[in-house]
Structures are given as structure tokens and as C-alpha cells.
Amino acid sequence: MEAAGWPEPVVRVQSLSESGAATIPDRYVKPAHDRPSVNDGTTSGSVSIPVVDLSSPDGSAATARAVSEACREWGFFQAVNHGVPRDPLRRARAAWRGFFRLPVEAKQRYANSPATYEGYGSRLGVERGAVLDWGDYYFLHLRPPGSLSAADKWPHLPPDLRDATEEYGREVASLCERLMAAMSAGLGVNPGRLQEEFGGAEGAGVCVRVNYYPRCPQPELTLGLSSHSDPGGMTVLLADERVRGLQVRGRGGEWVTVDPIADAFIVNVGDQIQVLTNTTYRSVEHRVMVNADAERLSVAMFYNPRSDLPLAPMAELVSPGTPALYKPMTFDEYRLYIRRNGPRGKSQVESLKAHEDR
Hints:
- The protein has one domain (13-352): Sandwich (Jelly Rolls), CATH 2.60.120.
- It is 29% helix and 17% strand.
- It has helices spanning 13-18, 61-73, 86-100, 104-108, 161-187, 193-197, 200-203, 271-276, 331-341, 347-357; strands at 51-53, 76-80, 119-121, 136-143, 205-213, 225-228, 234-238, 246-249, 255-257, 265-269, 286-288, 296-304.
- Helix 2 links the parallel strand 1 and strand 2.
- The longest helix is centred in the middle third of the chain and has 27 residues, at 161-187.
């Protein structure tokens, strides 16, 4: 297929999966040290990411403590009793499953490019000859309205896809605002402080990436999404309710496989909140395994700072004993790294910290 700004023709992973081949192309085979192994993850009942109950009223000190502790210790948690109705979750899942079941030709009209990543994609980064991930996706900007959220990037089928996605986005964005207040309170600063740094509720950016991981004949050799930390502010993930795949890097370096709770959200800290909190809250590496027997679909919503605002550690969290670890940088400048290089662990945020320390 046409490269559309990519360094080489784009191959849809779904097409590879549906070809019936017993082996995967070499382009998808990870180096031995990056491959999942039979011992990766944890067994049921052992170590897992925290579960945070959000049923307490907004502003609850107990909720703020639980969210803050999870962000400090893990950078990840599952949010239950979060207040988002079940219907938008199920409508969004069903609509996007319908999209990925369309013929490739119907989806190809929405092919994306590295310029904005909006649309139907199958790779991240523009390095020629890079080892690729076993997954397709669809990426959309929901807020703020404007050139990035172009109408021609919305699929026409299924007919309810846009309405379902926009309703889902509104509900989850409202949840993000509540979580930002709890994160701020857990830092001991004004509950609106992080939101202020993001440019206010109206200034914050909202994007959605729907991930589709087709069946893979050799899941032990590849990944659906390579190890990375999220470059934005906060991610709220609606995981596949039937098939596990997400793994989070534990403090001991082990990979912990997440068991999604039905109708819960998996929330994680992004690099921008790590910067703003001067590493009090930390973004954490995570990756996605694939499966030989089942496809997987997840819906990730990214809640990001206004892209042209310089971000640096908040003044309240900086002192002579705890100096600022990062220089100011806009999110526009920061995410160019990801768009050039694709997912590479925590190399971007750590390289900025190392530069400041020299």
C-alpha cells in the first residue's frame, strides 16, 4: 500500500493475520531480550496494579490518598465505580469492532501519515527498516476542535461510530478532570493546580487511539505494542474485556500482566505529569502481548496539556533540596520525538532529566 509519508509501504497487520501464514515476517520479530516469555507476568492472586474505588464524593480525602499512592508507587491503577455509565463503554467497543471488521479497502481510505497520525495506522515512528509491532490502530483528536480534528478523518461506517466515540470522549474527559483534582489534592496543592498547568479544562487536549491486535501465529516472537511510557498527560484505557495483554513494568523490573476488571478503566500517568510533579508521580513502561487464539481491541483516551504551553516542574514541588529535574518544553516539542522514533521505553523523558542533571 502507498507509503503516505511513511519511509516504506505500509502493511496492515490484520491482512497478515488473515493470510493464514504459520510464521510472521522478519520485520515483526523482536530481539531476544524484548520478546515475551512463558514466565512473563504474574499468576492470579499475586502482585498486581492497585484498584481504586472512585465511588466517594468528589473531593474525598480518601480518594485523593488512594489515587496519589497509586501514582507514586505504580503509575497505574484500575478505577472502579468511576461514574461513567456502561452504555457509552459498550457502544464505543461495538462500533470500533465493527470498523475493524470492514474490508481493508474500506478502511484504507482513512490511512494516516506521520504528520498528525490521525486515521487508520499500522506503525509508529518513521525509521526505515525498524522492527514493527503486531497491531493496527485508529487515532483521532477529539479536543480542542480545529484542524487536527478534521471531519474527513471520521469513518463513515459503522453509522453510529462518530456519535458513540464523541459521547465516550465526553464522559471519559469528565472523569479525567476529576482524577486531575484528586492527583493535585494528593500532592498537597490546590485541587485545580494540575488542570491549570494543562491550560484549564477547555485548553486540555483529548485524543483517542483504538488498538486492534489481530491473532498472531507466533506470539512468543513479537509484541502488539513495544515497551514505552505514554508521552502525554494521563491515559484512560478501556481494555479488552475478554483477552489479557497489557503488561506493566514493576519496581523490580518484572513484567506484571494486568487482569482487567469488567467495566473498569486502567489509568496511568504520562510523561507530562511526571515532569509537572518533578517525578513525584511517575510514568511507567508498559507493553502489549498478542495472542494466537484471539484478537484484542482496546480504547485508549489520552488527556494532554495544551500543546503550546511550556511545561516544567510546578513551583510548589521545587525547593533547594528538591531542584527542578526538567527544563520547560511544550508538548508539541516533546511528542515530535515519539513521532520520529516510535516507542522506546522511557528514553525520552529520562534523556531530558539526564540533560538537566549535567
